[in-house]
Amino acid sequence: xxxxxxxxxxxxxxxSRFQESLVCYQEGIDLLLQVVKATTDEAKKHRYRQKIxxxxxxxxxxxxxxEKEKQDGKYHKQIRIEENAxxxxxxxxxxxxxxxxxSEVWVEDPYIRQVHQASRSSLYNFxxxxxxxxxxxxxxxxxHLLTSYDVxxxxxxxxxxxxxxxxxxxxxGVTLNIDFSSSIHDREIRFNNGWTxxxxxxxxxxxxxxxxFSIGYCDFDLRPCRExxxxxxxxxxxxxx
Length: 241
Fold this sequence. Notes:
By secondary structure, this protein is α/β, with parallel strands linked by helices. Helix 2 packs antiparallel against helix 3. The radius of gyration is 21 Å and the shape is elongated. It starts with a helix and ends in a 7-residue tail after the last strand. InterPro entries: MIT_dom, MIT_dom_sf, MIT_domain_contain_protein1, MITD1_C, MITD1_C_sf, MITD1_N. It comes from Eulacestoma nigropectus.
């Protein structure tokens, strides 16, 4: 398992997919260290240690490269979510960027509203996203939402739902600031540790479940997705709204 994981790390490294490569190197090194502990053959131990040393050096170089890209504001990672893919719940997508220092979050999405039944999930998706933030490990104190007004009678439903989310968040010591714009088009999420995540479909990249008692209705990791692209950037300064 350790050899296979390291082999995958080398492939990702060669493809310049450095963030993913680093994770595989780290996992592979841990597995190989376990093999060294269990091996009694000194010659094999020596060979394993040599390889581990090489992988650790490369992992350290990648770490420095990623850190430099962050400092220069050039870091960019792209994730392609295929049609009907599963395993892309919010925790899976965002967890590595929600470090303990995150205390402020900006969400820009023009469709956190409900115009008809098919889009009603947008408000629930935003609620799910807020629940993830409340669970941590970050200590979020403020969430800024910029969206657009719903039309017609849907506006009162939208305002009522957002106010309920706001009140509920306040019970957990989180302030929700809500602003509206008629010209907003971009969809992005920013954390005050410098990470910006742009999702082509915003938070609403999940397909509707087949029914209220279908697998994936409650657990978003099991819910099929619609095809979309996720772009992740790191910048020194997170812009304000």
